[in-house]
């Protein structure tokens, strides 16, 4: 009997939505091949979960230490396997899940835990097998061959693109944008006369103020987008010829569309992805953006706009993703079902 998959992740305005969105990417790739339940804590931002998912909620009061027992009670290991994405699913959690007899895939960022999962996926192009402390049975699925991308982006990655001139910019700093980098980047772009239009995508947990006033003042230049479908996001990216974004899931998606990208990091889990993409020559170097000012963005973007062409970076991006990514993930999941 094929087991049902429990996709396990949490996210809200406080913790960010990155783990949810990354797991959504995997669900969308494989949902036609497996039965599944999306499992999340009650305090997660539930409205961002796609409406067609079967969702089960873990009680808010339940501690992470007691969660493996709760899962086994409600979703016994004989019938379910688990795919988990989140930092709280550490060595202790993984070992407990395995002791209940579950097959487990863990989606990792940092390579700083001892791994007990059957399979560990880390799609950063920076990490190597030697970076991991793991069990002898643990299989590693590393690099962009295992990129966690929604189907429309996988499809877009198979098409070549040329950028001959730049007048439209794309800005996205994730679900919560804790340092409000969006408005600094937007103000910098508004100061650059070459940029005629700016598309800003805001996450479900974005709570900062100030963009509305900017939009009213620059309505002919600035367009704010929220709650975009997968295909709508692809379309908005394809309208743009330059992007500003952190080294998170959005960077993978932008590289599929193919354009000059100014990227950096502002939290630890983005740094290894950033180093990997920078090492591959796929992005322009933004470094640690946590303390960026408007003038920092303006200076760096002006430098990029001054380049004659971006063929090298765009070629590097196109080499990151092949047409076997979905098939590889399906094959991995079959191993735990």
TrEMBL record:
Active site per database record: 19
Catalytic activity, EC: 3.6.1.57
Protein name: UDP-2,4-diacetamido-2,4, 6-trideoxy-beta-L-altropyranose hydrolase
Gene Ontology MF term list: hydrolase activity
Source organism superkingdom: Bacteria
Binding site residues for substrate: 150, 253
InterPro entries in alphabetical order: PseG
């Amino acid at each position: 009997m094929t087991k049902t998959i429990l996709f396990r992740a949490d996210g809200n305005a406080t913790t960010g939505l990155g783990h949810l969105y990354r797991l959504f990417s995997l669900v969308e790739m494989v949902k036609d091949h497996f039965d599944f339940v999306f499992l999340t804590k009650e305090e997660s931002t539930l409205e961002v979960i796609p409406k067609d998912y079967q969702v089960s909620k873990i009680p808010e009061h339940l501690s992470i230490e007691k969660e493996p027992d709760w899962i086994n009670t409600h979703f016994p290991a004989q019938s379910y396997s688990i795919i988990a994405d989140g930092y709280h699913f550490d060595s202790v959690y993984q070992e407990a899940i395995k002791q209940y007899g579950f097959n487990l895939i863990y989606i990792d960022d940092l390579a700083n835990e001892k791994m007990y999962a059957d399979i560990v996926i880390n799609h950063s192009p920076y990490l190597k097998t030697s970076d991991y402390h793991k069990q002898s049975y643990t299989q590693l699925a590393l690099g962009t061959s295992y990129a966690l991308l929604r189907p429309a982006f996988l499809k877009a990655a198979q098409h070549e693109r040329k950028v001959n001139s730049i007048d439209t910019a794309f800005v996205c700093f994730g679900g919560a944008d804790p340092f409000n980098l969006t408005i600094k980047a937007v103000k910098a772009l508004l100061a650059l006369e070459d940029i005629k239009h700016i598309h800003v995508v805001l996450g479900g947990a974005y709570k900062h103020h100030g963009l509305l006033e900017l939009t009213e003042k620059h309505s002919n230049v600035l367009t704010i987008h929220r709650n975009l479908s997968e295909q709508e996001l692809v379309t908005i990216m394809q309208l743009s010829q330059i992007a500003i974004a952190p080294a998170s899931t959005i960077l993978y998606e932008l590289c599929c569309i193919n354009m000059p990208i100014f990227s950096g990091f502002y939290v630890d889990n983005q740094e290894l992805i950033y180093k990997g993409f920078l090492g591959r020559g796929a992005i322009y170097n933004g470094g640690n953006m946590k303390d960026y000012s408007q003038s920092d963005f303006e200076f760096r973007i002006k430098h990029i706009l001054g380049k004659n062409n971006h063929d090298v970076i765009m070629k590097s991006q196109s080499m990151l993703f092949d047409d076997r990514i979905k098939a590889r993930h399906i094959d991995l999941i079959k191993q735990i079902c």
